[in-house]
Structure formats: C-alpha cells, structure tokens
C-alpha cells in the first residue's frame, strides 16, 4: 500500500522563507563603459538556483495618482528600452549556503541612439534545491516542494548628455477620514526620468506644522502623483498652508548616479472642512 505524505502549510512557508536571496544594490546604474555590478547573496543554509533575466517596465500612476507598474508598453520600450543590448554574466548559477555571487551587467554601445536615459528591469529568480520530504521506499510516495521567488529592480544606462526636470500644475486636494490627499499633475522635462523625493508639510495659521510626509518617487512620463498626510485627531476646520518640495535626492541612490535638477517648491492655501 502506498503512503502519501501530507505537508502542512507551515512547512511550505518555512521552505519559502529559506528560498529567497538578497540582491544589492536595489537600483542599478551602468558606468561610462556601460558596466554595472550586482551582488546576489544566499543567506540560507540551502543551495539556491538563480536566474538573471530582463523585462521592460516602469512605474506609472493611475487616474487617481496611485502607483502602478506598467510592463506592456511597446511604444516606450522601442524608444527607451535596453532590449538585448543588456546582458548578464553569469546569467544562471548555483549559489551555495551563505555565499555571494558577483553578476556583471553590460550594455553594448549603440552610437546611433540619441542622448538620454535608457532603462529596463532586472528580474532575479531563485529557488531552493530541497531534498525530497520524507523517506522513500518501494511502497511510498514522497512530495517535493519547490518555491520560486522573483525580485525585480530598475536598471539605467546614460547615453550622452542627460537632463531631467518637472513642470507642476495646480494641486487637487481632498479630505477623507482625517487624511489629506494632494494629487499633483506633472509633466516630465528633459530626456531622463525624474528620480527623487517629495516632501509635503501642512501648516496652520500660526505656521505650526500639523502634518508632514516624505516619499521617494520615480516619475518617467507625464501623469499624476498623489501624496497623503495623516492629520492629528485634534485637527479642526480652517485655512491651512500646504508646502511641497521636490528634489533629485534619495537615500537609497547615490547622488552621483541621479540626474540632478533644481528643487521645485510649491505653496498653496487650502480650506479644510
């Protein structure tokens, strides 16, 4: 009689956690020679099968200013994608327990392309090499559990002179459940995405700070950007000042990699009821 080994959910999850590798940096920029370095680390005690792939995509925004990922945009891919010019060495490998693999990314030059920032996304897939669960014999059936994780990060390549900037339109604000939502219409300028941060500060009539928020952002093409501020329970109706500042600075990306632009500041008076 054959026996079927039943694996409980918590066992599945324990393998899932051990199957994930870590990658650094979380955003990749090639150097002047079109080369970048990615480090893949296996923090577990189980060997990992790792595959490096590429997929064109970029963060966008929906009609409400919420972040959405866009992966099917053939028009923008033909203009800004790296396509098959970007390669990884090695592309597949086995990573032992507590080991690190250096992956070289290289963009083949193309002098026919206009100046600008070209981009894609690097997809790092990993799965653990796990032994069969249970002891096997002639009259037993065992179950093998294998999870595959995918981590996706942005990769950029500067070609020639690059510049960036934003044009900000009139803000739209709304108040719901003590949350102030500001939707910022914007137009991207230059030939590179705007990578940076937005700072929002709400002040009362006495110039006292009521709420503040900071977000990183990656704005590739024209759209809407939403920022939410959590208001205190003591909030009351009245006239307030909302101050916004956008700048090409992020704590997770070195300034030398970011395309720099002058800070953008906008101040509006709003009535909150």
UniProtKB/TrEMBL annotation:
<keyword id="KW-0732">Signal</keyword>
<feature type="signal peptide">
    <location>
        <begin position="1"/>
        <end position="19"/>
    </location>
</feature>
<dbReference type="InterPro" id="IPR013783">
    <property type="entry name" value="Ig-like_fold"/>
</dbReference>
<protein>
    <recommendedName>
        <fullName>P pilus assembly protein, chaperone PapD</fullName>
    </recommendedName>
</protein>
């Amino acid at each position: 009689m054959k026996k079927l080994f039943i694996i409980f959910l918590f066992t599945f999850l324990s393998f899932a956690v051990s199957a994930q590798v870590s990658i650094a940096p979380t955003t990749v920029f090639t150097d002047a020679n079109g080369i970048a370095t990615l480090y893949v680390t296996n923090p577990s005690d189980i060997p990992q099968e790792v595959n490096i792939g590429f997929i064109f995509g970029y963060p966008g925004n929906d009609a409400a200013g919420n972040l959405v990922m866009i992966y099917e945009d053939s028009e923008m891919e033909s203009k800004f994608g790296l396509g098959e010019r970007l390669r990884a060495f090695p592309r597949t490998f086995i990573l032992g327990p507590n080991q690190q693999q250096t992956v070289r990314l290289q963009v083949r030059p193309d002098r026919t392309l206009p100046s600008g920032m070209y981009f894609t996304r690097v997809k790092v897939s990993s799965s653990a090499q796990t032994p069969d669960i249970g002891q096997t014999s002639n009259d037993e059936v065992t179950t093998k559990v294998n999870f595959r994780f995918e981590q996706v990060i942005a990769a950029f390549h500067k070609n020639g002179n690059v510049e960036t900037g934003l044009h900000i339109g009139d803000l739209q604000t709304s108040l719901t459940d003590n949350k102030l939502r500001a939707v910022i219409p914007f137009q991207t300028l230059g030939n590179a995405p705007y990578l940076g941060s937005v700072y929002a500060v709400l002040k009362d009539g006495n110039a006292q700070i009521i709420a503040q928020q900071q977000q990183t952002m990656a704005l590739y093409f024209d759209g809407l950007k939403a920022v939410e501020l959590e208001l205190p329970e003591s909030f009351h109706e009245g006239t307030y000042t909302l101050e916004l500042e956008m700048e090409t600075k992020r704590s997770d990306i070195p300034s030398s990699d970011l395309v720099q632009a002058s800070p953008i500041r906008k101040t509006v008076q709003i009535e909150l009821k």
